[in-house]
Amino acid sequence: MAADNRQSNGNHQFEYPSVRRALDHTLLSSKEYHVVIVGASYAGLSAALTLMTLKDGQPLPLRDYGDYSHLHGTTQVKNLRITIIDERDGCFHTVGTPLAHISPAHTQRMWRQYKRFPKLRRPDVKVKHGTVTTIDPNNRILTYIDKCNNLESQKPYDYLLVSTGIRRKWPVALRAQSLIPHPRDASSHVDDMAAVEKLGIVVIGDGPVGIEFAGSLKAYHSSMRVTLVHSWDRLLSSEPLPDKFKTLSYELLQGEGVRVILNEHPSVEALPDGTYYVKSKNGDHIHAGLVIIATSQSKPSTSFLPKSYISGNGFIMVDSKQMALTLLEQTKDYRRIFAAGDIVEWPEIKLGCSAMIMGSVAAANIYALLLTEEDPSQPLVMERCPQHQPKIALSIGTNVVIYDGSGIGIQHGKDLAELSFGSDLSYSRVLSALGLEEYDE
């Protein structure tokens, strides 16, 4: 249908007019539809579970964050098949990386293997442990390396969702790609920190990751000297947050016992004994046992995509007018390929909750397109992805600071830590929101 026929339907949807006819609640087409999801963290899992619940005629997991009224009581596409391809064999709570790499008690709790979620064990859902290398949009086929046998395989798709996220360096992100080596990998980092307690640790980078890492280090190793070094004159300098929030984060981090050095562009020299000199331009230096690079430099995981899909920063460009999370309207694969999560060129702080909402919206729009494929007389209604005001809950050691973007103000305090994050930096809440509470230990 021509794009200029769309009609605005409130703030959440675009409708493409057509003539509706009565349908049974189950579509009986013999054609199988294959939706492939590449990357299964917050956005990818959210998308998969949204498609599953729509197919089953059940309430959407994240229905409170959108309209979705056009999908209430809709017909069910029974021949829908879902394939998830992920470089890891499970979902790792990346928000919990500082805890996983600092506290042995949390190392394994942050990783949940896909095969142990009963909800994902069903005939119409396949989870592949592999790395996508190329896609052929003309023939709608992607190629991936199956990590189970290290062989190249191909997978056809009708619709593709890319939610591969961004890559960061160890130890602020994972190295392991399966559960078995992960505890050993994380434990080696815990052992390294114990070995350097006398000299201390320097964290370079002022973003949420760097602040949370420095705060967690001091909380779990109270006698260790922890220093955070940043090149600008205030913390969180690149984040669209109020100055008061940034100042308070600085004060709370210092209150936890972390030394904060601003306006420094340090160089790091590795010494023969395995320790480091962190040098400033004025000649001062810190002798540290370990240096953690937590700068905001991260690399989007888009190397397998055509360059026409990708912005100069390496992120996937999506339609900004309809906000349906499909590729740009002038792109050949408009409405065949969608993107969600951190991989998207999107004007928001990159958060797990935002990625989950994006995954749900993208999946709902894929399902809407499937309905029109089954019955072209059905009107196509596309859900908009909401754009939220900047908001964040930042864990700073034993403290927390919260800005919800609503104008209520900024809250902070140690009593808010349990309320905001629980004992696992909100992982249990994430899984509950997705309907993945059941897990076979």
Automatic annotation (TrEMBL):
According to its record, what are the GO cellular component terms?
cytoplasm
**Annotated InterPro entries:** FAD/NAD-bd_sf, FAD/NAD-binding_dom
Quote the Pfam families the UniProt record gives. Pyr_redox_2 (PF07992)
Query: One MF term in GO for this entry?
Result: flavin adenine dinucleotide binding
Q: Where is the signal peptide?
A: none
According to the entry, every stretch annotated as the FAD/NAD(P)-binding domain falls at 33-348
The protein's name is FAD/NAD(P)-binding domain-containing protein
